[in-house]
Specification:
- The complex is a heterodimer.
- Chain A has one domain: SH3 type barrels (Roll), CATH 2.30.30.100.
- Chain A is built from two helices and five strands.
- In chain A, strands 4-3-2-1-5 form a five-stranded antiparallel β-sheet.
- Chain B is of the alpha/beta class.
- Chain B has one domain: TIM Barrel (Alpha-Beta Barrel), CATH 3.20.20.70.
- Chain B starts with a helix and ends with a helix.
- Classes of the chains: A alpha+beta, B alpha/beta.
- At the A-B interface, strand 2, strand 3 and helix 2 of A face loops of B.
């Protein structure tokens, strides 16, 4: 499988770079928190765990860090910024291999 | 085969009942994930990569039981995350057993001995600990990226068996697995006295740390043929022999993604335990509104192309068994002779 580039730090301009639907799809696939800016200027920080673009009024669902859940219509979204750490971009497996290799190269290992 | 007769009877009557009712899509095993938190970070796992506030959440027992009731499957598998980190695991299992659900508690066993000592669980024919074991010591510790886990798990398995619990093992295989070592592993698990073993190729989770060692379809067939073509009589597998034949390339099956539906913090996962394409608010909605034709090998979906994982294909194998006299005969022969 091709290595994916993390979207951490990405702040696309909706309507110019990409559509709201595309950004929501990327944010749904992203394993970190995002900041959603609504049409009224409100900022919500949390994890987007669901979205449905195939209904009359497409929406996303997210959990915020304080335990709250939110549902927002696509039409109410002005921006989404990928502000949280991408937890799937870790290097735990590489770190494990490195530790094993280092242990194996020690004379007393 | 090692599945107890009472469990076989429950599953057989359930499946036949569904077929007699003409139900097109029915669940066989509910995959109930009460939490995503885990005390390991395995190389091939794509299930636990979430922000801290998601990992700290968990379902309530009541949410779990409502999902079990709504789904209606006769078996409930509790993966995760690590279910022994779920604070109400004892009560959840007790409630499921009271409802006569066959429960497979999937655990890495790091906390198992401690929980057994605390008396969290009571032995029952409805409860099996399904211990994650990806091979002998060297292979397992490498798969879970931590030294010493194999030994802890073996100790916990022995303790659970000593206390009278049903114990099975579940093994995920990746590219590079050595068939001879795996045969030694099967011997080792039988020596421990486990009831049976479950094996499956790993799914190529896009979020897993190791993206290199997922098995492609032909290599999976080669590996399983090399491991299982001449099985020892003492080996017992806690899964359909037809599924094992499928892994060996003897059947060309299609996936049954609704067979093992998944419920977790986010709802009913579309379309299956492995892919996260969205969530439905109810089981009914999952079944009725998921575009099933977009998934499975024949759909051409690249995410499904190499998948041979048990959560999609074991239900197909069970359907094959009960769908024709030929399928039933094949299952009986494999069960009686122990050959695949």
């Amino acid at each position: 499988m091709a290595e994916e580039t993390s979207l951490q730090g990405w702040a696309p301009v909706i309507g110019v770079e990409t559509s709201v639907g595309e950004v929501v799809d990327r944010a749904f696939d992203y394993r970190g928190d995002v900041t959603v800016v609504t049409a009224s200027g409100r900022e919500l920080v949390g994890y987007i765990y669901n979205r449905d673009a195939h209904v009359a009024e497409p929406y996303l669902q997210m959990f915020d860090a304080d335990g709250g859940s939110h549902q927002l219509s696509y039409s109410d979204i002005r921006a989404i910024r990928f502000t949280g750490k991408d937890t799937a971009a870790g290097t735990s497996y590489e770190a494990w291999l490195r530790r094993k290799a280092e242990a194996g190269s020690r004379p007393d290992a | 085969m090692s599945v107890p007769l009472s469990q076989m009877w429950t599953v057989a009557t359930y499946v036949l009942g569904q077929r007699l009712r003409g139900r097109q899509r029915y669940p066989l095993v509910l995959m109930l994930e009460p939490l995503f938190r885990c005390n390991l970070a395995c190389a091939g796992c794509g299930k636990i990569q979430y922000p801290g506030h998601i990992l700290r959440r968990h379902l309530t027992v009541e949410q779990c039981l409502a999902a079990v009731e709504e789904c209606g499957a006769p078996m409930v598998s509790i993966p995760g995350g690590e279910p022994l980190m779920y604070p109400d695991i004892g009560r959840l299992v007790q409630e499921l057993v009271a409802r006569r659900k066959y429960v497979y508690l999937c655990t890495n066993a790091l906390l198992l001995k401690e929980k057994l000592g605390e008396g969290v669980f009571t032995p029952s024919k409805y409860l099996s600990f399904s211990v994650h074991m990806d091979g002998l010591r060297e292979e397992h510790d490498e798969a879970v990226c931590r030294d010493g886990v194999y030994d802890v798990a073996v100790e916990a398995i022995c303790e659970a068996l000593r206390r009278g619990f049903r114990v099975t093992t579940n093994t995920t295989l990746f590219d590079g697995a050595n068939p001879l070592r795996m045969r030694e592993f099967f011997d080792a698990m039988m020596d421990l006295g486990v009831e049976g073993m479950m094996v499956s190729p790993g799914y190529s989770y896009s979020k897993a740390p190791d993206q290199v060692h997922f098995l492609r379809r032909q290599r999976a067939h080669d590996l399983f043929r090399a491991m299982l073509a001449n099985p020892k009589k003492r080996w017992r597998f806690n899964q359909s022999p037809i599924f094992l034949q499928f892994l060996m390339g003897k059947h060309d099956f299609e996936c049954t993604p609704w067979g093992n539906p998944t419920y977790n913090l986010f709802g009913w996962q579309r379309p299956c335990y492995l892919l996260q394409e969205g969530y439905a608010a109810s089981f009914k909605e999952l079944i009725e509104t998921t575009r099933w034709e977009d998934y499975g090998k024949r759909s051409g979906n690249p995410k499904c192309r190499d998948c041979m994982v048990h959560c999609g294909y074991e239900p197909t194998a069970v359907n094959h068994t009960f769908g024709s006299w030929r399928g039933f005969r094949e299952s009986v022969v494999a069960t009686v002779t122990g050959r695949f």
